[in-house]
Amino acid sequence: MPQPVFVSYSEPDRKCALELVAFAESAGFGCWIAPRDISPSSEWAAEIIDAISAAQVMVLIFSSNSNGSPQVRREVERAVHKQLTILPFRIENVLPSKSLEYFLSAQQWLDAFPPPLEPHYENLCRHLRHALGGRPAAGPAGAPSIAPPTQTQGPIDAEALRQVELGLAAYLGPVAKVLVKRAAGRCAHWDDMVRELATELDGESHRREFLEACRTIRRPRPISGT
After folding, report:
1. Residue ranges, the chain, pLDDT below 50
2. What's the rounded Cα separation, in Å, for the pair 217 and 23?
3. Segments forming the whole domain that contains residue 159
4. Beta bridge partners of 58
5. What stretches of the chain show up as alpha helix (H) in DSSP?
6. For 64, 104, 168, 215, which has the most beta carbons within 10 A of its beta carbon?
7. Do the bridges between strand 5-8 and strand 110-111 make them parallel or antiparallel, or are there none, so unpaired?
8. Sign of the CA dihedral 65, 70, 24, 19?
C-alpha cells in the first residue's frame, strides 16, 4: 500500500531513521523506508521511484553523511520533481552542499539537536500532520498538458528503447534506465510510452525537445519479433 511519508537518509544514519519511523508510525503516520519496504528480488531503484511517486511528504534526515550522499541527492531531486513537501530533519549542525541547497533553499528546516531526539520527533509529527492535512487528495495541480507526438502507434523496438533511454538520460541521468524500462512494461504502444516519459521532465521546452527527438527514432522491428 502506498505510504504518504517517504524517509530519505544516508546509511550511517540508519539508527536515527528507524527510530524516527517507529515514532511516526506509533503516531499514526504511514512511512516508507528502505530497505525495510523494498520487496524481495525487486529492483531497488524502481521501488524507490515508485515510493516517492506515491508519497505526499519526504522526511530528509539531514547530516554530514546525507549531505555528501549521491543517493540522497537523487531522491531529493525526484521528490522536488514530483512536487512533494520536503521536511529536512537536521540532526547535525551542518549546512547543505551546493547541490542540495539548490533544491532545499526554500524548505523549512527542523533542527533535531541538541539531544534527546524524542522532543524533536514530536515536533516533526506536528509538521507532518500539518503538511498532510493541507495537501489535496488529487494529483499535483498544474500538471503539464503534453501534445501527443506524431509517431504512428505500433510495437516498441528494443533498439528504439535504447535511444529513448539515452535521450532521457541527457535530462535525468542514470534514473532514465529505470523509467524507460517501467514505461515500456506498462505501455503497449510507442506514443503512450514517450508521452508518459515526457511527464518526468521539468519545463515545457524540455518536454517538447524530448518528444521531438522521439519522433526521429526509427523502430525497425518489434521486441517480440512479430
Report:
1. 134-154, 220-226
2. 51
3. 144-226
4. 6, 86
5. 14-26, 44-54, 64-67, 70-81, 98-104, 118-133, 158-172, 175-186, 190-198, 204-215
6. 168
7. unpaired
8. negative
- Name which of 145, 162, 9 is nearest 75 in CA terms: 9
**Domain total of the chain:** 2
Alpha-carbon gap, residue 175 to 129, rounded angstroms: 31
C-alpha cell at 206: 524540455
Spatial distance between the Cα atoms of 186 and 170, rounded to a whole number of angstroms: 23
pLDDT at 111: 93
In terms of pTM, does the model score above 0.90?
no
Per the domain annotation, does 118 fall within a domain? yes
Indicate if 157 and 105 belong to the same structural domain.
no
pLDDT in tens, 59-112: 999 999 999 999 999 999 999 999 999 999 999 999 999 889 888 876 778 999
Predicted local confidence at residue 195, as pLDDT: 84
